[in-house]
Amino acid sequence: MTEIEYEVREQDLLAFSKHRLKDSESLKKSLRRHEAMVPGVLAIFSMFLWLYYQDTLSAIYAGVTAVAWGILTPQFIKWQTLRSIKKMYSDEERAAIVGSYKLRVAADALVEIGKEGETKLPWSQVLRIEMTWRYAFIFVGLDTALIVPRKTITSGDIHEFIKDADARIEQAGG
Q1: What is the mean pLDDT of the chain?
Q2: Closest to 97 measured CA to CA, from 169, 11, 167, 2
Q3: 65 and 23, same structural domain?
Q4: Is residue 138 domain-shared with residue 156, that is, in the same domain?
Q5: What whole-number distance in Å separates Cα of residue 117 and Cα of residue 115?
Q6: Residue 7: beta bridge partners?
């Protein structure tokens, strides 16, 4: 049985939400619109002012507005999204999630040992494992995952754990 011990911090909750948003089509579409389309229309308007009306000052204002819009608006959208993510978790939920955990690969289930005791999750309920440079996300639902911050692992080998867990997931799924 492979086992790892790690700690989940408050910032790790945000990392999972950021990871999920990275693939969000609606967010990508909104960012594209504010990075390229709106500034492009403003730039064309600026060129029109300068070429047709010979109004250099207004053309400069419109051009500067286009550049500022393209740079600042996407940053504001990202900031606002992170702010709404932070509000998703109440203080009680945050306190319940943050803390030290152990995960063990058993023959029949993934065993999680935390503050509230031992929980066994059958391998048929574990969907997949996604690795990033800083985290391992063990998906147990479409929008739910166990977060394993690689930096806070105090014992065990994450690579061996993931290899064993992947093998169990494949056995249960196939």
Answers
A1: 90
A2: 11
A3: yes
A4: yes
A5: 6
A6: 100
Overall domain count for the chain: 2
Domain end residue (candidates: 26, 61, 88): 88
Q: What are the two backbone dihedrals, phi and then psi, of residue 148, each rounded to the nearest 5 degrees?
A: -120, 100
- Identity of residue 52: Y
Q: pLDDT digit string (tens) for 108-139?
A: 999 999 988 999 999 999 999 999 999 999 99
Residue 128 near residue 140 (C-beta atoms within 8 A): no
Residue 135 · residue 149 · CB < 8 Å: yes
Kindly report the CATH number assigned to the domain that includes residue 154: 2.30.29
Q: How far apart are CA 126 and CA 137, in angstroms?
A: 11
Residue 173 has pLDDT above 80, yes or no: no
46-71 pLDDT, tens digit each: 999 989 888 899 999 999 999 999 99
Does residue 23 register a pLDDT over 80? no
Torsion of CA 74, 80, 86, 89, to 10 degrees: -120
Q: Which domain holds residue 140?
A: 3-9+91-173
